[in-house]
Amino acid sequence: MNEAREEELKVIDDSHSTVSELPVFQRAQLETTSGGDRQFADQVLRVFVSEIPSRIRSIRRAVESGEYRNLRYHARAAKCGSQAVGAIRLAEVCSELEERAQGGDVLPVISSLVKEARRFRTHVNQQNVF
């Protein structure tokens, strides 16, 4: 592996350590996305949470089939959705996955994605966000 690529992966690895410093959920972002409509925000969040398992399955299928173009597509879609609902940590992990889909080792990031998705779902449920 060339030195530039090694340095790029090191930066990505270092950025992963900052994920734990980010909030799991940022309600203000969801409120911005929904234009302040609480009922609409709750609906958007419910749909997002319900779609997390299928998004992860799509990402895993893309990895298993070696379709890294599809992996980048699904990682970006998950990142954008996460950002829209205020799932800040999840969005950061999706961003890292999108970057690594261009030639890095994606398996550790997928493991982190699953953990952050679970953490987000648990947080939303425990905090009675809906």
Descriptive key words:
130 residues; mainly alpha; Four Helix Bundle (Hemerythrin (Met), subunit A); elongated
In CATH terms, what is the architecture? Up-down Bundle
Residues in helix, %: over 70%
**Number of domains in the coordinates?**
1
Under CATH at level 1, the class stands as Mainly Alpha
Query: What is the H level of CATH, i.e. the homologous superfamily?
Result: HPT domain
Q: Alpha-carbon distance between the termini? A: 47 Å
**Can you count the helices?**
6
Task: Please give a structural write-up.
The protein is mostly helical and 130 residues long. It has a single domain, classed as Four Helix Bundle (Hemerythrin (Met), subunit A). It contains 6 helices and no strands. Helix 3 runs antiparallel to helix 4 (68-85). It is elongated, with a radius of gyration of 15 Å. The N and C termini lie far apart (47 Å). The model is unreliable at 4-16 (pLDDT under 50).
